[in-house]
Design a protein that fits this description.
Elements lengths: L7 E10 L6 E11 L6 E5 L4 E9 L2 E11 L4 E6 L7 E11 L6 E7 L2 E7 L20 E9 L3 E4 L3 E7 L2 E6 L12 E4 L2 E2 L3 E3 L2 E7 L8 H18 L8 E6 L6 E2 L4 E5 L12 H17 L6 E3 L5 H19 L5 H16 L14 H6 L3 H18 L1 H15 L2 E3 L1 H12 L4 H9 L4 E10 L2 E10 L8 H4 L5 E8 L5 E8 L3 E8 L5 E3 L9 E4 L1 H9 L6 H16 L5 H9 L7 H18 L5 H22 L9 H17 L3 H16 L9 H10 L3 H12 L4 H10 L6 H11 L6 H13 L4 H10 L1 H4 L8 H6 L7 H13 L6 H28 L7
Parallel strand pairs: 1-10, 17-18, 18-20, 21-22, 23-29
Antiparallel strand pairs: 1-2, 2-7, 3-6, 4-5, 4-7, 5-6, 8-9, 9-14, 10-13, 11-14, 12-13, 15-17, 16-17, 19-20, 23-24, 24-27, 25-26, 25-28
Bound molecules: zinc ion.
Length: about 850
């Protein structure tokens, strides 16, 4: 499916006529090419573009295009020339027209109320839906754009604005030529936009662009962008390469954000915030995403992966770098705890038989789109972090700087990075890290304390971890080099860090005199991408001193033990014992780490228990968490620290959603009315859980109020909060109304999949939602954009039963979603794993909740 090495584009000179009020746009381009002498046919990418006049030119003059041969399969057109081209350089003139698309890719239509915008989203392989091009990441070229549009519109692209020519009601905007870029990094946004003030970092002017009226929400983004750019320049030791930096909030946008060189596009929720009502979580996410995109200006834009199989070189690094930079800027935000939460889904996915390596062969564009998942981002970032920890931050940074300098404006593969790191570290790096990138899955490290002659040792044994207990021993047998970091605690409460590189299946790590070791935790700071399961004695000691582990380790321990339960390697009772110790847990993220598994139990296991046992389970949760919430209360003191505010919100979510706590539910219902009238009636961090909880038993008037509030929302976050909470209503008539909205323009295309995912999480709506998806597929599928399809498919195991599993398999066999092919296999696997776990866990839970044993 790849293009030939030659022709290679060197420069694209593109003239575009774009009017977002019209359904079509057109363009004319002149492409300068390096060619093989004697070239007779030129194949380049173009999809759903109508080609007009085209011709080639070499040193001898113009050459007619005799024939155009399209290939639907290859998404290309081949221009067959009248005569062979002479020499090694030629140019191609080409005219085309195309639709302003509806599916959030290529050059597409985004609406904001009555306003219409044309915006691009070209990654992975959709530049070919915008202009005829050599749409592969290693075919880098310079781009010079000029865009003609009605004078009332603003036009933003990668290059700086050079000049504007106005003729009557139209203008032509000329942009500066870019440095060499991959096609997927070209950007264009046209429409009524307003720009923030400019801030400068060195010589780089930074601005935020948004739909009119929202400029006042741009201050935080400007602050973050300035801080991040300065810190990134320092880290890489290279100035920002693209002259100016525009950050654009696009009103309908598939992904979170897109790192187009010099013109980064975002979902509105990830760029525009109101300092008075924003929650800390929203703010941290905005800072992280902006920093991620700016890290791409070096990792990705300046040095680009040679092909989509190495997508992780872009994404794993940008993900890791964002946490590193924001954490250094705001240590009090504890960004690495967010990272720990984010990577929990990567652990879950990577424990499936249908996982994939971080590095993954890509033949066709849909496979490139599939690779934008938690394995590439979060597992990838975890491996980068593990590598940095193993090499040391200074050595690692020297290697990265060498790699960026060596490949700037070019492309690179993983091996190029390993070489640069090896030169910096003066030791082999590839043998340690390549297995993590090239092989699927991750290790389980079983840790056991042994003593000999007064000395303590940790006996560790590795195998590949699978969620499915039925996977045979052969598939599990694997060794890979594991850089492991241990926290060793003395009886007097002192911590030591012990580092080891595990290269064999079994290793023994010396811990020192036995009487100097109270306990050991086998993945200090969760710095390695492994599941650690400790033997019973260690686990009891860890449980007894849970509060003395680092917060990330408490999150890790809860995650490892729950994974052990799922895989039939650890008893449920041990995990529940850890949960009973969380009543006084100060860190909201640790509560968050317990929330997911508890929600699974409530959703999957409780319905199979007798009423009395289910009530006891909810009572158990209430007994653990209600006293903590009672001490906090609903209102926050003025000087209350952020984590206390977030902890309150986490407790409300657990008590209201999982423990069915009548007081908390009533409290949420009593507070929604005042909150709808005045946003200052509620501590901002409580907005999420309260809006969601109040919806559960809400009737039509509350539904109408949410809809009105959503339409009149003052911030993008508020809009999304009320929009997605529509999916939490349980009355059947209201479920129908939410489903109908998914087909209407009230819900922008970008939010259709998130809304359906929420509906599938709602026990009162999920079966009807699945029926609706099947019945209305013809209307719905155009609103399920390719990049989000896998998210919808991944939410379907909520349907739980074998009947639904069969329906899901057969429905997508006849209605295939190419960008969700792997997600479908994973979803079907998860249906089975959940069923298996329900069968094992329900008796355990019944036993745990026996009246004479507990409470
Ligand atoms: Zn990215």
């Amino acid at each position: 499916m790849r293009l030939q090495e030659l022709p290679r584009p060197e420069r694209y000179d593109l003239a575009l006529w774009v009017n977002p009020a019209k359904d079509r746009f057109r363009g004319e381009g002149e492409l300068e090419l390096e060619i093989a002498p004697g070239t007779r046919a030129i194949e380049l990418h173009a999809v759903e573009l109508e080609l007009g006049a085209c011709s080639a030119r070499d040193a001898k003059g113009e050459v007619r295009v005799a024939r155009i041969r399209p290939s639907l399969e290859r998404e290309t057109v081949t221009l067959v020339l009248d005569r062979p081209l002479e020499g090694t350089r030629a140019s191609l003139r080409i005219a085309w027209a195309g639709p302003l698309r509806a599916d959030l890719r290529g050059l597409y239509l985004a609406r904001s109320g009555k306003r219409r915008y044309a915006a691009t989203q070209l990654e992975a392989a959709d530049a070919r839906r915008f202009f005829p091009c050599f749409d592969e990441p290693d075919k880098k070229a310079r781009f010079r754009l000029r865009v003609t549009t009605p004078t009332r519109y603003q036009v933003v692209s990668n290059g700086a604005l050079v000049r504007t020519e106005t003729r009557g009601s139209r203008k032509t905007v000329h942009f500066a030529e870019t440095p060499k870029l991959s096609t997927y990094l070209v950007a264009l946004v046209v429409g009524e936009l307003e720009a923030s003030r400019r801030v400068r970092v060195g010589r780089t002017p930074i601005r935020v662009w948004c739909v009119p009226g929202k400029k006042k929400l741009a201050g935080f983004a400007l602050e973050v962008a300035a801080v991040a750019l300065r810190r990134l320049e320092e880290y890489f030791g290279l100035p920002y390469p693209y002259g100016k930096l525009d950050l654009l909030a696009v009103p309908d946008f598939e992904f979170g954000a897109m790192e187009n060189a010099g013109a980064v596009t975002f979902r509105e929720t990830l760029l525009l915030v109101d300092a008075k009502t924003v929650t800390l979580g929203e703010k941290k996410r905005v800072a992280e995403v902006i920093t991620h995109e700016l890290a791409h200006m070096w990792y990705g834009d300046l040095v680009t992966m040679s092909w989509w199989d190495d997508l992780w070189l872009n994404e794993a690094f940008a993900t890791w770098m964002a946490f590193k930079i924001v954490d250094a800027w705001k240590p009090e935000w504890k960004m690495w705890l967010d990272f720990e939460s984010h990577r929990a889904p990567a652990f879950a996915l990577d424990a499936l038989e249908n996982t994939h390596p971080i590095y993954g062969p890509v033949a066709r564009p849909s496979e490139a789109t599939e690779n934008f998942d938690v394995i590439t981002y979060e597992k990838g970032a975890s491996v980068v972090r593990m590598l940095e920890s193993w090499l040391g931050p200074a050595v690692f940074r020297r290697g990265v700087q060498r790699y960026i300098r060596r490949h700037r404006e070019g492309n690179a593969r993983a091996a190029d990075l390993w070489r640069a790191l090896e030169l910096a570290a003066r030791k082999p790096v590839a043998p340690i890290v390549a297995p993590w990138v090239e092989r699927p899955g991750f290790p389980l490290v079983a840790a056991q304390r042994v003593e000999r002659a007064g000395q303590a040792f940790l006996l560790v044994e590795q195998e590949r971890f699978f969620a499915n207990p039925k996977v045979g021993a052969e598939a599990r047998t694997e060794t890979r080099p594991i850089p492991l970091v241990l926290r060793v605690r003395s009886p007097r409460g002192r911590d030591r860090i012990v580092r080891a590189l595990l290269e064999k299946k079994r290793s023994e790590i010396a811990l020192g005199p036995a009487d100097s070791v109270a306990w050991v935790y086998a993945n200090a700071d969760e710095s390695s991408f492994v599941r650690a399961l400790h033997d019973g004695a260690i686990l009891r000691a860890l449980g007894a001193e849970l509060g003395r582990l680092a917060p990330a380790e408490r999150m890790g321990l809860l995650g490892h033990q729950w994974a052990g339960v799922r895989a039939d390697r650890a008893p449920l009772a041990d995990w529940l014992e850890l949960v009973t110790r969380l009543g006084d847990e100060p860190e909201p993220d640790v509560l968050g780490a317990a929330h997911g598994p508890l929600a699974w139990l409530v959703d999957h296991a409780l319905p199979a228990l007798a009423g009395v046992h289910a009530a006891r389970f909810r009572g158990l949760l209430g007994g653990i968490f209600a006293p903590a919430f009672a001490r906090l209360g609903w209102s926050a003191g003025k000087s209350e620290p952020d984590e206390q505010r977030q902890r309150r919100a986490a407790l409300v979510a657990i008590l209201g959603n999982l423990a069915d706590d009548a007081d908390v539910r009533a409290g949420a219902e009593a507070r929604i009315g005042p909150y709808l009238k005045s946003r200052s009636a509620l501590e901002p961090n409580l907005a999420g859980p309260v809006v969601e909880l109040a919806a559960r038993n809400g009737a039509a008037p509350l539904f109408d109020a949410y809809l009105r509030t959503m339409k009149a929302a003052r911030t993008p976050q508020e809009r999304t909060r009320f929009e997605l909470a529509l999916a939490a209503f349980r009355a059947p008539a209201l479920v129908e109304r939410t489903l109908a909205l998914a087909l209407s323009e009230v819900v922008p295309t970008q939010d259709v999949v998130p809304l359906l995912v929420r509906l599938l999480a709602n026990p009162a709506a999920r079966e009807r939602t699945w029926e609706f998806i099947r019945e209305r597929w013809t209307d719905l599928s155009p609103r399920i954009s390719p990049g989000l399809a896998s998210r919808l498919v991944s939410a379907l195991p909520a349907l739980q039963t074998p009947l639904y599993r069969r329906q899901v398999a057969s429905f997508f066999a006849t209605h295939p979603l190419p960008t969700a092919a792997r997600a479908l296999k994973q979803a079907l696997e998860r249906f089975e794993l959940d069923a298996d776990l329900r069968g094992r866990i329900v008796p355990d839970l019944r036993e745990y909740l026996r009246p004479e044993v507990k409470l």
